[in-house]
Amino acid sequence: MNYKVVEIFDSINGEGPLAGRLSTFVRFASCNLRCHYCDTRYAYDHPQYTLMSLAEILTRIEEASLDLVTLTGGEPLATPHVDVLIEKLGEMGKHVEIETNGSIDIAPFHRLAHRPSFTLDYKLPGSGMSAFMKTENYQYLKDGDIVKFVCGAKDDLEEALRIIRIYHLNEEDCYFSAVFNQLAPRDIVDFLLAHKLKAKVQLQLHKYIWDPMKRGV
Ligand SMILES: C[S@@+](CC[C@H](N)C(=O)[O-])C[C@H]1O[C@@H](n2cnc3c(N)ncnc32)[C@H](O)[C@@H]1O
Ligand SMILES: Nc1nc2[nH]cc(C(=O)O)c2c(=O)[nH]1
Ligand code: SF4
Ligand SMILES: [Mg+2]
């Protein structure tokens, strides 16, 4: 059982409910979507990856001695045997967090003995990928999971609000992020104020700490 791993690195989590916390990141190759704004094309566009066994990944994570592990990509839930890795990490006492694009059924992962937490994207019109969203996933959301809306323009903000309303999403578990260098974070704040929304603004911390193009941070 081998996994296509583009990079493994230790950093602070720049996004999501655990932003600011140290985590070991595992970035898998390949993605089933092609978001217009994607900042991680190197994970699926002629990707350079290492084939790693389960044992090799676990050893690398164990060596880091961090309690949090973030599985990302590419699309981690499209990675063969990722469920096996999630269970093993759970057995090791790790908190596993999944960054997923919203197009993959999370039910099989929700039912694992060691259920991970999910940052579930809803891909807005600016991404070009809205048609692939599986909104059935919302029935499986639990405490600690969030829905993330990456907004590239004011139309995206309006659409995010519409989605929150029609699927009765808990506002406090919804994060609004800006497509980096495209939508001003201030516009998100103004939007939240205008609608008195309890959603949270989310900036990608690592892009402020390091060069925004830098990989492996
Ligand atoms: C690179 S994706 C990998 C995980 C998964 N494929 C997904 O889309 O959730 C990780 C996160 O980065 C976000 N992201 C990608 N490009 C971005 C950009 N240019 N600005 C802000 N966020 C971005 C995605 O929306 C997603 O929430
Ligand atoms: N520091 C850091 N935090 C992150 N949180 C989610 C990331 C991702 O690319 O999925 C990411 C990333 O690439 N770097
Ligand atoms: S789903 Fe995630 S990795 Fe795939 S293209 Fe969109 S942002 Fe990039
Ligand atoms: Mg990233």
Automatic annotation (TrEMBL):
- Gene Ontology biological process terms in this record: tRNA queuosine(34) biosynthetic process
Co-factor requirement: Mg(2+); S-adenosyl-L-methionine; [4Fe-4S] cluster
Binding-site residues for S-adenosyl-L-methionine, renumbered to this chain: Y37, C38, D39, G74
Q: Which gene encodes it?
A: queE
Swiss-Prot/TrEMBL keywords: 4Fe-4S, Iron, Iron-sulfur, Lyase, Magnesium, Metal-binding, Queuosine biosynthesis, S-adenosyl-L-methionine
Q: Which organism is it from?
A: Intestinibaculum porci
Supply the Pfam families for this chain.
Radical_SAM
Superkingdom in the source lineage: Bacteria
The protein, known as: 7-carboxy-7-deazaguanine synthase
EC number of this enzyme: 4.3.99.3
The family this protein is said to belong to: Belongs to the radical SAM superfamily. 7-carboxy-7-deazaguanine synthase family.
Q: How is the cofactor bound?
A: Binds 1 S-adenosyl-L-methionine per subunit. Binds 1 [4Fe-4S] cluster. The cluster is coordinated with 3 cysteines and an exchangeable S-adenosyl-L-methionine.
Residue positions annotated to bind substrate are: I12, N13, G14, R27, T72
Q: How does it assemble?
A: Homodimer.
